[in-house]
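ingest -> validate -> predict -> emit
validate: passed (alphabet ok, no gaps, 290 aa)
predict: started
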Amino acid sequence: MLKFPFYPSLFSLAHFGVLCISLLLTSVTLSTAQHSKLKQFLKALPEEIEVSLQVNKEDESLLYAQNENKQIPSASIIKVPILIFLFMEVDKGSLDLDEKVVLEEKDKVGGAGMLRENPDGSSFTWRYLATEMIRISDNTATNMLINRLGRTRIQTWLEEEGFKHTILDRLMMDFEAIAEGRQNFTSPNDTNRLFMGLYNGQWLTENSKVEALFMLKNCADNTCIPGQLPPGVEIAHKTGTLDYVRGDAGIVFGTSPIFLSVFVEGFKELTEAESIIAEISRIVFEELEE
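emit:
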């Protein structure tokens, strides 16, 4: 007796296809309902305001995204991959965080931070420089770290890890580079991926991961993501500020961790952008804590 392979009927295939589409539409409907408050808030913003954001759960599943792959000038949020790369070098034994480095006049730049106020010849550990890079976004400390680690090496790592929108193309406060069109960039998707990889131990040993997160939990700028959250909620994050971009990205440690990256453009005052980010953070937190 001849046996023929089973081929589903055209009706079966069509029925299966309809079922898949139905399930997909159901999923989209549930997702839309879950984030209705956030959608309503974003829709009510002035037309000139542009918000780019991404929200992920602890298992890295996507909760909400808007303009998530837009490449945006990163401001000081570019300091997050610098921090991760620093601890990668520590884990490889290529750098000792307790080693001291001498501050020189050529290292000093303006903008955020107080390291430049120290006299030439002052010495600091790499750990201290990393702490200040995150805590008060110290630009002098950041540049010293970039010069030690190698800007090209950091950028090569970012490319190898598939971060398509994140570019470290200049030092902090390098106005000559800016005039040449060289800028640092990232996106909400890339930034969330950086924080998810850090949290899930993708690149670092447990000790380095814990210390890096500790530094990020001590970011002194609490006007954005932490701004409207309940007291006592831990947040490991890094802010960034330019005249035309205000951003904050990190991990909110609620009942379960939330990964959140938000960038606001088109604002008239920084306080307006900060209020928008804080409100987005509150809405997301409250919906997931219910």
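The CA atoms of residues 85 and 153 lie 9 Å apart.
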